[in-house]
Design goal:
- The protein has a 5-stranded parallel beta sheet with strand order 2-1-3-4-5, with helices on both faces.
- Helix content is 38%, strand content 17%.
- Strand 11 and strand 12 form a beta hairpin.
- It is built from 14 helices and 13 strands.
- With 422 residues, it is of the alpha/beta class.
- It folds into 2 domains: 222 residues, Response regulator (Rossmann fold, 3-Layer(aba) Sandwich), CATH 3.40.50; 151 residues, 3-Layer(aba) Sandwich (Rossmann fold), CATH 3.40.50.
- This is ABC transporter substrate-binding protein.
Length: 422
């Protein structure tokens, strides 16, 4: 037995040497020879790939804790039935930061230095991602498809290892401004926004998109994520008598704003709620009868929309959620979001020229019309040199009955409004 063990070790060492040896992060090399030699292979072997995600499983944004359930269900399905990604089984390690940036940094360090993950796949929230991207880029660890639409993920050139996924907040704001130009060209708008980079990004994008029009912002109120309630802000906004309310919030505060709007019988504005707080789980506690006609936008398929009842990808999603996440409700759109972003990672990893950190970094910045079946028809992944925004198309939707209904056509904001630049 001792001779067999020595022989196996010798073969392993020979294989490592042929693949470029041990990398700077302490992992053993699995990269192919030639162009991939010497690149980072921490967290990836010929048979496995380890990813780390950071989410607010607790705290004021805990509604987003449903996202990793959809991601894990997708990876469990691919591992069990497809042999993994490129023959590698995916291990997805999830950490809770409570939506606290210092905690996010702590968890990022733990994932990179202790868990030895191949990549940080999804850090949720603009504050948490802002707190961790310096560290990820200094360590040259891919921080892939972060769950935030801040525009800086796509325009910044100093952090090549970090990239977003969902439509950026400025592009989303442009869509709402375009809607008002058509439907209410003389709109008087009251805005509630989260007082951080997320809220300011979307609000700033809306202001710029409204320049040169008759759309006017007549009242602004901000809130902190530590605030117990936004009722005072909502009372102040109602006093403005604005005929449009732009609700730039995360789920907890989105639900509070909807409830406050419903209780205020003297104020009945057109209510626009940003995509990140438009989940059915946000609306349901308020009462569907109180949220009729509110407007938002989307870019992926809603499991509550009968349009997708016979859709092959939605059918597969429902089957595999039941099989691999039996305690999770497949009708919650955050699960669908998770499935879609995991599928996007699958496509990007398969397209990587090298099974290395550098290979993944380069792959996600060279996406050309990549189709992900859980995205809306007409929405594809596209990136290029100088364009770090994988998704910039979305479609407006209005809440009717007990679900969102899409209307109009998919809007490619690159074509309609021009590309964003740093």
């Amino acid at each position: 037995m001792r001779l067999s063990a020595i022989g196996a070790a010798a073969l392993l060492l020979a294989g490592v040497a042929a693949c470029g040896g041990r990398d700077a992060g302490g992992g053993t090399g699995t990269a192919a020879s030639g162009q991939c030699q010497g690149q980072q292979t921490t967290g990836i072997t010929d048979k496995t790939i380890k990813l780390g995600g950071i989410y607010p499983l607790s705290g004021p944004a805990s509604a987003y804790g449903d996202i990793p359930k959809g991601i894990k269900a997708y990876f469990d399905y691919v591992n069990a039935e497809k042999g993994g990604i490129g023959g590698r089984k995916v291990e997805f390690v999830v950490r809770d930061d409570g939506y606290q940036p210092p905690k996010a940094v702590e968890e990022a360090r733990r994932l990179v230095e202790q868990e030895q993950v191949f990549a940080l796949f999804q850090t949720l929230g603009t504050p948490s991602t802002s707190a961790t991207w310096d560290y990820a880029n200094q360590r040259k660890v891919p921080q892939i498809f972060v769950a935030t639409g801040a525009s800086k993920w796509g325009t910044d050139t100093a952090h090549p290892w970090t990239i977003g996924w969902q439509p950026n907040y400025i592009s989303e704001a442009r869509v709402y401004a375009q809607y008002l130009k058509t439907e209410k060209p003389d709109a008087k708008v009251a805005v509630l926004y989260q007082n951080d980079d997320f809220g300011k990004d979307l609000l700033g994008g809306f202001k710029r998109a409204a320049e040169g029009t008759n759309i006017k912002i007549v009242a602004e109120q901000s809130y902190e994520v530590s605030d117990p309630s936004i009722d005072p802000q909502m009372r102040n906004l109602a006093e403005s008598k604005a005929d449009v309310f732009l609700n730039i919030t995360t789920p907890k505060f989105g639900s509070q704003a909807l409830a406050a709007d419903a209780k205020n019988t003297g104020w009945n504005p057109v209510h626009i709620i940003n995509n990140v707080a438009a989940s059915i789980t946000v609306l349901k506690p308020v009462g569907f009868e109180n949220v009729q006609g509110i407007v938002s936008s989307s870019y992926y398929k809603d499991p509550n929309d009968p349009t997708w009842q016979s859709d092959p990808e939605m059918t597969l999603y429902r089957q595999k959620m039941q099989q691999y996440a039996p305690g999770a409700d497949p009708n919650i759109p955050y699960h669908t979001f998770g499935w879609a972003v995991a599928s996007s990672f699958h496509k990007a990893m398969e397209a990587a020229k090298c099974p290395t950190r550098e290979g993944l970094r380069d792959s996600v910045r060279d996406l050309k019309g990549v189709q992900v079946d859980m995205l809306l028809p007409g929405v594809t992944l596209n990136t290029a040199q100088g364009d770090g925004f994988p998704i910039e198309s979305m479609q407006l939707m209005k809440f009717k009955g007990e679900r969102w209904e899409l209307f109009g056509s998919v809007i490619d904001t690159r074509k309609e409004f021009g590309p964003l630049t740093g």
